[in-house]
Amino acid sequence: MSRYDNLINGQWTAADSYSPNTNPSDLSDVIGEYAQGGASDVQAAVSAAAAAFPAWSTSGIQARSDALDKIGTEILARKAELGELLAREEGKTLPEAIGEVGRAGQIFKFFAGECLRLSGETLPSVRPGIGVEITREPIGVVGLITPWNFPIAIPAWKIAPALAFGNCVVLKPADLVPGSAWALADIIHRSGIPAGVFNLVMGRGRVIGEALVNHADVAAISFTGSVGVGRGIAEACVKSGKKVQLEMGGKNPQIVLDDADLAQAVELSAQSGFYSTGQRCTASSRLIVTDKIYPAFIEALQARMARILVGDARAAGTDMGPVVSQAQLEQDLSYVEIAKAEGARLAAGGARVACHTGSGKQGYYMAPTLFVDTEAGMRINREEVFGPVASVIRVKDYEEALAVSNDTPFGLSAGIATTSLKHATHFKRHSQAGMVMVNLPTAGVDYHVPFGGRKGSSYGPREQGRYAQEFYTTVKTAYTLA
Prior knowledge:
By secondary structure, the chain is of the alpha/beta class. 38% of the residues lie in helices and 23% in strands.
């Protein structure tokens, strides 16, 4: 079985121990053994990044652009191969996995261009004879901590801007899905970027992540993951003066009004709630439906869910792959029992299922699950399940729907299905979410525009697009006497 090492200072570096990377679609399939680093590996990686920073941060923008473009080109050329790996280790279907890889490649291409679009301002001073220049500079060594649900796209949208703006990087990927991150690191390693500029340290979050967050030479931390861990990181970063950026999930509402196109509303609700096995921070798990359309919507959604084929992520015809791990499956099923105990009515799913191909493969397969006749205050409508579980809340009208949609500690993504321009316009302005979708799934965003939320979903500057510079650079104001 192949072993995969950490990348530190331009060298593949062995670890004291390794952990198997298992396919959630087929528990007998082990992809490889991946390094389990320790605090000493973080120390070595940060030291290498700090040493590389002076030269990289002042290097020519064309060289940086060429390197990022080369990375993006190789990712796109290998998207079928890399998509196969992603589907195998994470469990999202092969078309979704290939799409994610393509997005990662386009992200690097976009930031290759951003290298050449660095801008500033020249202003006159209020004092005669003095000029003022406002410029942006890289912040230093950046620690990136990424989740398991998008194992190549999220590392890409953190790494690419960090490198584009002249920072050096230490990446700690999710322990469940190291394969995609390792493949990306290998591509970056061969791109011509100098040793130490990019480093990969795999291992347990409470070991590697904690060492990164607490290292004095790390200037900033960008984290995507759970609320509890994110808040702990924020507290530690504030104490040490580090810049911090957090993406921590959501409990995203999808409103369906009486005037909605029923077929469209059902399809976007199914896409938002159950594709990628519901394991997206932008997934919609709260379906808020008005009175008149409620019975027809429930009936049509149940019929649509019955056509979702659950099985091996790489098998032809699979619509929904497995849950990522045993622990996640147990959490999903526990919320099914919680919802039942609170009085929600189970309308579909709620249990483990066999692979639709009849292969007999043992995997973490769960049926797409729907609860109806739920109340807004139930735990199933307050807490993020992060699985293929959605619940429906019945409301009287748009005003009540808006109030219920905003009644959440999260604020990442929100959607509305309606043919009313009045209600769509009002919702875009009054939804307390960072991203709003009108007649579109709540999950599905572009790589060239800002990504992020409000309230408990996000903290710090937005990710992606030109807004990424707000986190990965610092502003300098220089005065010159003419």
